[in-house]
Amino acid sequence: MEVQFKPEILLVDDVEHNLFTLRTLIENHFEANLSEATSGEQVLRIINDRNVDLILMDVMMPGMDGFETARLIKNRPKTSNIPIIFISAYDPTQKLLEKGIAAGGFDYLTKPIDDNQLVYRLKMYLRFIQHEFMMNMHLRELNQKLIEEIEERKATEQTLQVSQKELWTANAAKDKFFSIIAHDLRNPFNAIIGLTSILLDEYDRFPADKQKEFLRNIKSSASNTFRLLQNLLEWSQTQTGRITFEPMKFEIGPVITEILELVRPSAENKNIRLEMALSEGLTVFADMNMFGTVIRNLLQNGIKFTQPGGWVGIETCRAGSTVEISIKDTGVGISPDKLNKLFMIDANVASNGTEGEEGTGLGLILCHEFIEKNKGQIRVGSRPGAGSTFVVALPEVVETL
Fold first, then answer.
1. Using N-to-C axis directions, what is the helix angle for 40-49 and 66-75, rounded to 10°?
2. Which residues 6+ apart lie within 8 Å of 207 measured at CB?
3. Dihedral of the CA atoms 95, 101, 106, 112 (nearest 10)?
4. 115-160, pLDDT tens digit by residue?
5. Residue 183 — very low, low, confident or very high, per pLDDT cuts 50/70/90?
6. Residue 170 Ramachandran class (φ > 0 left, ψ -120 to 50 alpha, else beta)
7. Contact 33, 8 (CB under 8 A)
8. What span, in angstroms and rounded, lies between the C-alpha atoms of 67 and 73?
């Protein structure tokens, strides 16, 4: 879009008649915005408030003369490039011309002003000023385009980085998925099939206590496989974005109590004591099913990695603006090299329980994803041989009257 250049010209003279003459001459020959000043002080105020392209200034003025005004204009970075044309009486010695140039003047005209000469010089100066204006405008446009191009490239790079990270995560998830299918699901089924085949083929050869042992092993393998399938299904739904997320306000105590009863048989089978210390009235805003999955997985992990005769405990408390749920055990603990990788999809931190229960590490990854989705945090502290403590923190919902 073409921009019409209309220069800003400041006329300076302490005599009104001289200002009138200059204004009339310029208005008859140029399209320009004109402003006037009658003193050096007024000039400085005008150029401080708005842009001026050219100054026509009388030298002899009361108070601050034109030369002093020009020096002040040139000493200011904001106004130092404004062209100044001095107008004064005829000076045969040319001393005023020399002073004008020394003060930073662009040109020097003498009175009485020759109209044709002034018009000619103004045309020449304004053509130069217009060219500079158009060049600056073109540079600004180029600079703006460059800024937009840089921002566009940055946005493209950020998008590529996000896509690359998502692709890396998707590949890691795919590898994890196939690893579980290829190994962790196959092994429990092999155990179930092997034990049932022995019972079917040689049932009468085994005493009753041996038969019960086989059945207990089958039940244990089936339960572990069911839990694995449950986690696998929920985790695959999170990876494909198909899991239902329905946050609501609920009290955590009853939910935890119900889950404790669900895992109690597993604890009793290993002679592990369950302990509970729940504060009353703690309410959060989260998806109840996801919350239940997290607590169930952490309790089952505690049972799996605790020796018979040990204990697994859960307690809740208020911590600032959050509710904290701590699951503690007296189990085997976690080595430092695995501790920082527990929630990483591409890390292999799976290990067997104290009675050979197989693990995949998937449950903890699922816990981490569910807690983050509910705007919470999960952290762990552990030492080999000294048990582990997992802490889940969720924002508390405070009832207001």
1. 30
2. none
3. -10
4. 888 888 888 888 888 787 778 788 888 888 888 888 888 888 888 8
5. very low
6. alpha
7. yes
8. 10
Taken in order 329, 334, 336, 337, is the CA torsion positive or negative? Answer: negative
Burial 16-55 (b: 16+ CB within 10 A, else e): eebbebbeeebeeeeebebbbbbbbebbbebbeeeebbbb
Please give the Cα distance from 367 to 380 (Å, whole number): 12
Q: CB of 269 within 8 A of CB of 401?
A: no
Distance CA 230, CA 328 (A): 23
Tokens of 88: 């004064």
pLDDT tens digit sequence for 253-288 = 999 999 888 888 888 888 999 999 999 889 999 989
For 302, phi then psi, to 5°, come to -60, -45
- Average pLDDT of the residues in 356-361: 60
**Distance from C-alpha of 82 to C-alpha of 103, rounded to nearest angstrom:** 13
* Sign of the CA dihedral running 338, 342, 348, 352: positive
The helix or strand, by DSSP H or E, that contains position 199, with its residue range, turns out to be helix 186-202
Q: What is the pLDDT of residue 1?
A: 47
Each residue's pLDDT tens digit, 88-107: 876 655 676 677 777 777 78
Residue 91, φ and ψ in degrees, nearest 5: -135, 95
DSSP E strands: which ranges in 273-310? 273-277, 283-287
What is the length of the chain? 401
pTM of model > 0.85: no
